[in-house]
Structures are given as structure tokens and as C-alpha cells.
Amino acid sequence: MNHCVLIHYHELSLKKGNRKWFEDRFVSNVTKQLKGLPFSNVKLIVGRVVVFDINPEYKNLYLARLKNVMGLMNATTMVQIDADIEQMRQTADYLLENVEFKNFRVTTKRQDKSFPKTSIQISMDVGGFIHQKMNKPVKLKGAELELIIEIVNGFAYIGFEKTKGFGGLPVGVSEKAISLLSSGIDSPVSSFELLKRGVNLTYVHFHSAPATSRQSIKLVERIVQKLTNYSLNARLYHIPLLEVQQAIMEQIPNKFWILFFRRSMMKLASQIAELENASALITGENIGQVASQTLSNIRVADDASTFPILRPLAGSNKDDIVNRAKEIGTYEISIEPYQDCCSYFVPVHPETRANLDEMLDLEAELNIEEEMCDAFDLRELKIYEYNIENL
Predict the structure, then answer these.
(1) Domain span at residue 246?
(2) Read out DSSP for 6-63?
(3) What angle (nearest 5°) sits at the alpha carbon of residue 10, between those of residues 9 and 16?
(4) Which pLDDT tens digit goes with each residue over 77-118?
């Protein structure tokens, strides 16, 4: 009897010629995520991934770690036995002996069609045994406990404790992008949504210290540490924007300040993208949420970038964003007090429908080249690795 975790992955099954490459990356990420926990090996078996020889005393910890593996659809702690109906009955009795439940159902998947009984017959046989032995009623819809049986390559996997993952693709199978990360609620969620698509992220944080406190810097570093639970590693650039902002405020009408702050960020982030060989920028903008996020103002910001800008949250409801932030563990960090590098300098009446041609005319007279160069040269890089203490 081998205690194990059986994992089903998400979109990898749709891949064709390069499916093995996706699967190998997924297995590698699973292995890294379980660092420090006992297991013998992680093996790909007919469209499933199995973690063998786990310690059942830590089953909740295995599932909590595996939930963070991008590309995972679900994971279930199981016992591997020979595909024998009597062993299935006895294993079900062993697993459920001390478990409290009012009703149950048995769900069987039979990959190995050479097994003489059909999936329905297996479920009826094992379910009937449980019903008779434990005097528990079967409930096909909404059962309190679902016993899962999978017949694969001559073995039966039996278990009932399942966790759902976030789905998507394994981190690292897509290209690199630069995420503009603040310590607010939105941009960490935006970053997570791209991690879920397998994108390899490098983060850029702009700050206005010492005019503002260094709190946003500290919060962003904690957020990046939290996001490494999903990405396993990360690179974070801190870029000082204060001198650029001061030069803009001296030369540009105040209603346009935020727009020129955003354009300068896009230009600096594009330079980081060049440095990191990235293919896109990512922001947490949500259309209409604040003055700088109207369609007209977004167009003005986009024009300053030499890379495509992805906005995963553009059409999301704020409640959905908050719920996701809570789910991934960044919300409590993001709601701590901080001074944002842009909101600290927001004028009373910011422009909400900027005209790009007018912005370009103003920019032609703007002299901030030296400040922009200094900001880029004074960038600070921090590197983060997955740490189980951050879970």
C-alpha cells in the first residue's frame, strides 16, 4: 500500500506536439513545490502526475503546497494498490474507518480498459460494500463524502481528500513579461493572473522616497515573496521616480501630472523589458476605476511604451479582484497604509480624457532626459526564491 497524491493537470492535455515539454515543466514545478516534505519521486503516468510515498500525517500540507502549482486542476491524497476489487473494498474500509460522514458516493475513472468491471460496476460494488459495512446511505448528488477510484495501468488509486487548483499553465512555459507592481490590491492580482498563464514575470516598483515613506517598498517586497509561492522565483527592480516627478511638476500643468508620471513609468519599464529580454508589460489597471484609467488616458500611457501592455483586470469587477487577492494571500498586505508614488502627487482636478496629440506637444517641450537616465541607473535589483516559510 503506497500513500501518494494523484494530480490532474489542466490545459496541458490540449497540447499536441509540445505536450511533453509542458508536462516536464509541470512535474519539475510540482517537485520544487514539495521541497522539504517526504516523498520518493514524482512520476507522469498516462496524463496524470503521481507523488509517491508521501507521509499521510502531512496530507493537508501536501495539498496546500500543490494548490499553488500553476496548471494543476486538482490533487487528491490516495492509496495505490493492485487493481483488484477485493483490495479496493478493504482499502475503502481502511481509509474511511475513522472518518465521520452522513452520506457518500463513489466515483470511478477507468483508464485501464482491460480491467473486467466497468467504472459504474466498480462504483456500485465498492459503494455497496461501504453501505453494508458502515450503514451509510448513498447520495449521488451533493454527497458529503466522495470516494474516488482511478484504475490506471494495472493499479487502483483510492482516496477522498481533494483540493482544486487554479488551473492554467505551468509557470515558465510562456515568455517573460515585466509587471509594474504597486503595493495596492490590483497589480498583485494582475501579476497572478499572468503567472497562471505560464508567464515568467519580473517586477518593477516605482517609488518616491524620500518624499514618501519607504513603506510601499517594504510592502511590495512582501507581496513578491508571497507571489513566489506560485512562481517559485522572482526578480524585483526598485526604481526611484521622485526626481522625474519633480521635473514634470515644474514644467507641466498639474492636471496632466499623473499622465506624464505614467508615461515616464512606461518608458522606464520598457528599458527594463529590453534589459530582461521580455516581450510585454503588465499593469493592474481596471477601466474607469480612477482618473488615470479612462480609455483616453490609457491610450496616452500606451503610446509611451515600446512593448505591448497587457491588462488582465481591465474588465474585472472590484469585488472579484478583492476576492482573488484574498485567495492568493496578498490582500492583507495591500490594505496596509502606504504612500503611492503617484497618488501622493494627485492634483485636485486631474485630466480624465487626455488628447494624445496635446500630450505629445507638451512632451516635446519637456526636459527630463537626465532625470530619466538617473532613475534607470539608480535601479535596485532584488532576487527572490521560493521559501516555505512564506506560505
Answers:
(1) 176-390
(2) EEEESGGGG--TTHHHHHHHHHHHHHHHTTTS--S-EEEETTEEEEES--GGGHHHHH
(3) 95
(4) 999 999 999 999 999 999 999 999 999 999 999 998 899 999
- What Å distances lie between residue 102 and 99, 105, 237, CA to CA? 10, 11, 53
Is 169 within the bounds of a domain? no
Contact 78, 66 (CB under 8 A): no
Task: Identify the residue whose cell numbers are 453501505.
Answer: 131
Q: Cell numbers for 125, please give them.
A: 460494488
Nearest one of 140, 82, 86, 92 to 112, comparing CA atoms: 82
The pLDDT score that the predictor gives to residue 349 is: 74
Q: What are phi and psi of 209, to 5 degrees?
A: -65, 140
End-to-end CA gap in the chain: 30
Single out the residue of 155, 139, 154, 59 nearest to residue 106, CA to CA. 139
User: Given 164, 188, 214, which residue is the final one in a domain?
Assistant: 164
Mean pLDDT of 17-36: 90
386 falls in which pLDDT band (50, 70, 90)?
Answer: confident
How many domains are there within the chain? 2
Q: What pLDDT sits at residue 353?
A: 86
Q: Is residue 271 part of a domain?
A: yes
What digits encode the pLDDT tens for the residues 267-297?
999 999 999 999 999 999 998 777 678 898 8
Per cent of the chain over pLDDT 90 is 81
Q: pLDDT band for position 348 (50/70/90)?
A: low
pLDDT number for residue 233: 93
- With beta carbons less than 8 A apart as the criterion, state whether 173 and 198 touch: yes
- Same domain membership, residue 370 and residue 282: yes
End residue of a domain, out of 133, 164, 195? 164
As a whole number of angstroms, the distance between CA 33 and CA 49 comes to 14
Cβ atoms within 10 Å of 187's Cβ, excluding its own = 24
Percent of the chain whose predicted confidence (pLDDT) is above 70: 94
d(CA 293, CA 269): 18
Same domain, 296 and 230: yes
Residue 343 pLDDT greater than 70, yes or no: no
